[in-house]
Amino acid sequence: MFPILITYKNLFLHASLSFLLTLLLTFLKIPVFFLHGLHTYIHPDNLSNGVKAAIRRPDGSSDSASGFSSKTNAEIRKRTKSKDNKFEFDESNAQIFRLKLDDAHLQSRLYFYEYRNAFTFSLVVISSLLLEKYLNGGSEESGSFANGGFVPVLLGFVGVFKFLTLLAKVSFEKSASRRSEKQLSVLFGVLGAIVGNMVCFLISPSVLDFNFGPIDGFGRFSIAVLMGCLAGFLFMPATKSARAFWLGTDQPRSNLAMISCGWFGRLTLYANYLVILFAAILWIKPLSEMLVNKNIADGKDVHLDNKFGHLERLFGSVGILPSDFAKLRIWCLLLSGFLQLVALRPNLQMYLNEALLCWYQRLHASKVPDLEFSRAKVFLHNHFLCLVVLQFLAPPVLLLVFLGLSQLDGNSIEDYQLVCGLLPCSAFLKEVALFLAWWVVFIWAVYTSVTLLLFRRGNLYVS
Subcellular location, in the record's words (predicted)? Predict the structure, then answer.
């Protein structure tokens, strides 16, 4: 028995890690604990249960900045209707309750079980990729069945398929988004596939620092289709993230303490956005060549001239080593994925606070406000809570899975002729997976930046 364990020790380690991690995450309820403490809001029809409202329409003695009222329900004055004023505002129907998310609340939400399974599976996949990276560093039998190299590759492919399927499902969920958003997702998906064909067949070596030479035409077309799917499915999550950044950093200057997040949340949102932007431009050749010194390895001494005709010598003569620059790009992608996971909680809280802001705006819009729209918005944001968590969780997980596959040894799946007959294995793992990881970051940066620009110009607004 011991010789078998020694022979298949890596395979045993992969299987044990996956099983134990799944067991621990399920029994300790880590997916629920990850969202524990966030606040959601409900807009009740009546107050017969005696629950005290968290927020009420402020009057002269209340804090107008935060929206709290010092009066209790029993102290609300009963106003008598006059003949001149037919419509009388009823404060008891304009209250909103704030609830802290717990296990019971989350289990009653739509897509909770999909979120729980996706959260558990994502940690299993990422842990398996990290274990393979560690074991592969000191192994000489990479790619053999005994080494267990097929496990992270198989889990990676299943994870990508699983999250793409979930994104497709939640993107077209009825009542979860506007019809125009669904149409724009389809449009950007088609445009993404067209841009993908241009990148794979025309502009990849000259503009982007990727080389698809070893891949045939069918493989490039498949990559372009996958790029289109990512461009379409990530449109709505990216725009939601941009709205969360807009509210979390208090760009509308609402000065409402219950809507914007604290200093740590703002720091996370700013750091996440800046790292994504920086990582997205590191593969664009005119910019990336400025950061790499290609003459260090050749031992050339470059003398810069003051003449304009010799200024081009500056490019490729200053900067860091190419090997260090390659590591920098990998670490930036890894950091961007990690920061997106850290920013998931602030983004989700801002998504829930968006319904609170809508209620507050409608409440103060007129003397007799129409709260039906805000009531529906509060309900939908509360009902589709786990759906939005899936939309925020999928991009960083896809990024980390693609990045992990790109860092594996190319021999990990060369023994499997079914996969290697379709695409060159080493090229897929080293180049295509890294390109798809960059593509996730790039389109996320483009969608977020354009949405924030439209907010800044006043073409879009949160309501």
Answer: Membrane
